[in-house]
Structure formats: structure tokens, C-alpha cells
Write a structure and sequence with these properties.
Strand content of chain B: under 5%
Largest sheet of chain B: 3 strands, antiparallel
Oligomer: heterodimer
Order of helices and strands of chain B: HHHHHHHHHHHHHHHHHHHEEEHH
Distance between the termini of chain A: 87 Å
Strand content of chain A: under 5%
Order of helices and strands of chain A: HH
Shape of chain B: globular
Largest interface: A-B, 30 and 40 residues
Strand order of the largest sheet of chain B: 1-2-3
Number of helices of chain A: 2
Structural class of chain B: mainly alpha
């Protein structure tokens, strides 16, 4: 086999092999990325929830605050 | 259907690829992402994603077709002379820049100037980065690909395929860009690594190449003059101010991940470069032996040869890889140009604190505006490659010196130093380009101007591409002179400067 042929084959193996290995590592990481994104979504939802409740039921919010103050004392 | 070697199955594969890209963008789309997540992916990118997005963004159609064209006409010099010399600059970037950039938590390239020299410097940097990132060449390449392969009008092709890229970039920001880049990276690499051995089999391997082509095709540096070799090496300098590179380092989870990604990308680039060069050489043999048409344009050589060698269905996959090469560059620079408009130009001029929602909305508007401007430029300006070289030279000549001084120089730095360095570099590059065009002759082969003159009995040539040899020293001089004026810039408290 010609030296150039060998060099070309070597590069084919390196390129395809590296691409596939990196893709496998990407698949491992992507789960964590999407889970992190879902967690962020949930956190955003949670952050928005008390505001909405307060707007709906100000009396309940006042009661809760009074309860917190009582417990603190 | 314009191409004789394509089958309906190939077109089905291509359609599936485009739908897949849209599906990924839609799946990643978040209702209300914050700006940091939209532009720098929440600074949480790991090495594998960084490798994919770095490797695919830097390797556009100009590498696939430009390098293979050079191999087709001139031989292995395309690999040893043109591609590999610039890797030294990448190596420097991996070790010297990644730590410093990641530690400072910048969001964009012009922000380095803003924090080092103040608002005016940031605005000037934003303009230079915006001019460089306009996606005219990538859109033109997509259109040309559609014309060659599918026989449809180039402007319509760029509108359709560029439109797909625009949609998923708008939907998901950097996450959509990076995850589509990952799929595109695998397609680019695997299809090329699969196609070249088949092409070798069809053409008779390198024994046939050595028998058919002149020995000069195997000279490592061909017949290139030393100056041209150094000029090619200098093209690697552009990575040191490339907004796409900076954005990926800012998006890395840590500087170590960014550095590892750059080093791994270099291995990928070396292998990819050689296979593109091998494809160009094998295509030349195909023409010599009569397997491929004698009138084959050197620019289309790799594409035609590979499609000829691949079986039905896999040619479609290879074309998807070629589209991926163009789209991964287009999406990245559209996002950067949009952010230049919103974060680097609109935000400082608004003179008030913008909410995340406003910044994301303005960035999306910026992406649409800059994409449209790039599209118009692509089909109005006829010397597009020359424009792209000018864009890269202008950015390097204006911001490289102030950015490196901002990052590494611990002494006195005044806003005037940045402005004089920027302005002198800009005047230098415009003056040089117009001067060579006025004094020299057009070179249609390279689409440039060359001024030939005699000095002390020796005939010398000045190409437009040599401008950095003159404009960078001018920019350094401008910085040193400007630094004598004004007060040392003291950045405001971090909370005001960093988002």
C-alpha cells in the first residue's frame, strides 16, 4: 500500500472515530443539559407562582405572613 | 434535478435532514429564556459540545471547496502550506486565551473593549464585529450549492435553506446552534471519512494519483513564494479576534473544557483537511482518466467526484454533510451579529438597564436584520470572497491590538489609545486596499489586486492579502501614541459592567 494511501486511511479512521466518540460523550451530556433546562423551567414556574397566588388571594397571604411572624416570636 | 448521479432516495435523505434541524430547534425553544442562556448557553457547555460547535463553525464551504480546489490544481501544498501553518495560532489561543477569557465572564468580544476602555471603545468594537459577522458569504455559498446540486435558482436556494437556519437560530439561540452543530459535525466528518475510501477505490488509490499527476503536486510547499506561505500562516491570526471563537469560550463550563475542546478540534481539523485535499487530488485523477467530465470546474471537483463514487442514499447523506458545513457557519454568525446589534450597540446607547426579556427580543430582531443585510450583500456585491477577506482584515487591524492590550497589558491604558489604534488600523486597511487597487493590476484567478514594482533592481509584488503586515504595526503605533493622551481608564464597579 502506498504511503499516501495509508495516511489517508489513518485520517479516515481518526476523523470518523473521533466524531463518533465525541458524539457518544455528547449524548451522555445532553441528558444533563435537558434536565438542567427543565429544572430552570420549573424554577421559573415556582418563582412566578407566589406572585400569582398573592394577586388572587391577598387575605391568605396576610394570614400566612402573620403566622410566620407568630412562629418567629 | 440537475445532478446526474443523484437519486430520489438522496433527496429524501436531504429533506429528512432539514426537517430534523427544524425539529431540534423547536424542541430546544424555551418560552422565556434569559439572555445569558440565549447568547452563551448559560455558560454550561461541556467539551464534547464545544468540540462539535468549534469544529463545524470554522469549517465552512470555503474549506471544503477552496482547499479541495487548491489540491486539484496545485497538489499537497493545499495541506502542508495552506491549512496546517495556521494551527500554531490555534495552539496559542488554546493555552493563552481560554483561561483569561473564561475567568472574566465576558459576554461578547466588544465587551472586552468596553470594560477595558469605556463605552465608546465598546461601540466601535461592536461595529467592527457586526461588519465581520454579517453572513453574506455563507448565504452565497448555500445558494451556489443549491444551484450546482439541485439546479434551482441560487437566490431562492439561499432563501429557503438560509430560512431554515434562521428559524432554528431564532427559536433556540446558542443551544439550538450548538446542538444542530453537533449533528452537523457528525454528518460532516463521518460522510467525508466514508466517501474518500470509496473514491480511492474508484480512482485506483494514490498509485494512480502519482502516475497521473505531475511530481510538483507532491511538493510539500509547491511553488509558493515564502511571502505567500507566511501570508497564509497569518490567516490563522483571525481566530485571535474571531467573535465565534470568543463566544464559545464564554459559553464553556470552565476554561479547562474550552482548552481541551480547542486541542481536540485541532486533531479533527488536521484529519478533515487531509481528506478534503485527498478528495481534490483523486478528482484530478478522475478528470485525467476520463471518468469525470474534462470541463469540470476545479471548484466543483470534490463534490462531483464524491457524488459519483457514493451509492444511492449515501450521496444524499454526504450532501446533507455539505449543507451542514454551510449551515453551521451561517447559524453561528447570524446569532453573533444579532447580539452585536442588541448587546453591544443598542444596550450602551439606550443608557438604561435592559431586562433579559428586552435583550432577547432585541437580539432576535437583530438576527433577522443582519441575516437580511447579509442576504442583500450576497446578491448585490459581486466580489464576495474579496469582501470576506476585507471583513476579516478590517476586524484584525482595528481590534486585535486594543483587545490584547486590554487582556494582557497591566500598565496604563487610556480610551484614546484604543480609539487611535482602531482608527489608524481602519484608515490603514482602507488606504492599503485602495492603494493596491489603484497602483496594481487585477488578478482574476485569486479575485484580488497585485502591485508589481522594482526596488533596488529586484522585482517585488504586493498583494492586497499582505495588508496585515502594514496595518497591524500601524495599529500598534496608534495605540502607543494614543496612550500618551487622557487618563488611565478605571472600569466601573463589576455589578454595573457585567450582566
Amino acid at each position: 500500500m502506498n504511503g499516501w494511501d495509508l495516511f489517508t486511511w489513518l485520517n479516515c479512521v481518526v476523523l470518523a472515530g473521533a466524531a463518533l466518540i465525541i458524539f457518544c460523550f455528547f449524548l451522555r451530556d445532553v441528558g444533563g443539559i435537558l434536565a438542567g433546562q427543565r429544572r430552570n423551567d420549573e424554577r421559573d414556574e415556582e418563582a412566578a407562582q407566589p406572585d400569582r397566588e398573592r394577586a388572587r388571594d391577598p387575605e391568605r397571604e396576610l394570614d400566612a405572613r402573620a403566622e410566620r411572624v407568630r412562629r418567629a416570636r | 434535478m440537475d445532478h446526474p448521479y443523484l437519486y430520489p432516495l438522496d433527496f429524501a435523505v436531504l429533506a429528512a435532514y432539514l426537517l430534523g434541524m427544524l425539529a431540534i430547534g423547536y424542541a430546544i425553544m424555551r418560552k422565556t429564556p434569559n439572555f445569558e442562556e440565549y447568547l452563551v448557553a448559560g455558560r454550561s457547555m461541556t467539551t464534547p459540545i464545544l468540540v462539535c460547535t468549534l469544529a463545524s463553525t470554522y469549517y465552512g464551504l470555503e474549506v471544503l471547496f477552496g482547499t479541495s480546489e487548491l489540491a486539484f490544481t496545485s497538489g499537497v501544498v493545499a495541506f502542508f502550506g495552506y491549512s496546517q501553518l495556521s494551527l500554531g495560532v490555534y495552539f496559542f489561543a488554546a493555552f493563552a486565551l481560554s483561561d483569561r477569557l473564561r475567568a472574566a465572564k465576558f459576554t461578547s468580544l466588544p465587551e472586552i473593549l468596553e470594560r477595558s476602555y469605556g463605552r465608546t471603545a465598546g461601540l466601535l468594537g461592536g461595529l467592527a464585529s457586526l461588519f465581520y459577522s454579517l453572513p453574506a458569504l455563507a448565504l452565497f455559498g448555500l445558494g451556489r450549492l443549491c444551484q450546482v446540486v439541485f439546479g434551482i435558482d441560487a437566490e431562492l436556494g439561499a432563501l429557503l435553506l438560509g430560512g431554515v437556519t434562521l428559524l432554528y437560530t431564532l427559536w433556540g439561540g446558542l443551544w439550538a446552534v450548538a446542538i444542530t452543530d453537533t449533528v452537523q459535525f457528525v454528518l460532516m466528518c463521518v460522510t467525508l471519512a466514508f466517501a474518500i475510501p470509496l473514491l480511492m477505490g474508484e480512482m485506483g488509490g494514490f498509485d494512480a494519483v502519482e502516475a497521473a499527476l505531475p511530481a510538483s503536486h507532491f511538493a510539500f510547499f509547491g511553488e509558493m513564494p515564502l511571502w505567500l506561505v507566511i501570508a497564509y500562516m497569518a490567516t490563522g491570526i483571525s481566530i485571535l479576534i474571531d467573535p465565534g471563537f470568543y463566544q464559545r469560550v464564554f459559553a464553556a463550563k470552565s476554561s479547562r473544557q474550552a482548552r481541551n475542546a480547542m486541542l481536540l478540534s485541532m486533531i479533527i481539523w488536521i484529519s478533515y483537511d487531509w481528506l478534503v485535499v485527498a478528495g481534490g487530488l483523486l478528482a484530478a485523477v478522475g478528470v485525467e482518466s476520463g471518468v469525470l467530465p474534462a470541463a469540470l470546474h476545479s471548484n466543483d471537483a470534490l463534490l462531483t467526484a464524491v457524488i459519483y463514487a457514493l451509492p444511492a442514499g449515501t450521496a444524499g447523506l454526504f450532501l446533507a454533510g455539505v449543507l451542514a458545513t454551510a449551515m453551521s457557519t451561517l447559524d453561528s454568525y447570524s446569532l453573533i451579529a444579532g447580539a452585536n446589534l442588541s448587546y453591544d450597540l443598542y444596550r450602551p446607547l439606550a443608557r438604561r438597564k435592559l431586562s433579559d426579556r428586552e435583550l432577547v427580543r432585541m437580539t432576535k430582531l437583530g438576527i433577522v436584520l443582519t441575516w437580511t443585510l447579509g442576504y442583500v450583500l450576497a446578491y448585490v456585491f459581486d466580489k464576495l470572497l474579496a469582501l470576506w477577506v476585507f471583513q476579516a482584515t478590517a476586524l484584525t487591524s482595528t481590534v486585535l491590538v486594543p483587545i490584547f492590550a486590554g487582556l494582557f497589558w497591566k500598565g496604563r491604558k487610556t480610551p484614546a489609545a484604543c480609539i487611535t489604534s482602531y482608527v489608524s488600523g481602519l484608515v490603514g486597511v482602507i488606504g492599503y486596499y485602495y492603494g493596491i487597487a489603484y497602483l496594481g493590476e487585477p488578478n482574476d484567478v485569486y479575485g484580488t489586486y497585485v502591485w508589481t514594482f522594482t526596488l533596488w533592481g529586484t522585482q517585488l509584488e504586493l498583494w492586497q492579502e499582505y495588508s496585515l503586515y502594514f496595518t497591524l504595526p500601524i495599529s500598534v503605533l496608534g495605540f502607543l501614541v494614543g496612550n500618551c493622551f487622557g487618563k488611565n481608564y478605571v472600569p466601573p464597579a463589576p455589578a454595573a459592567a457585567v450582566r
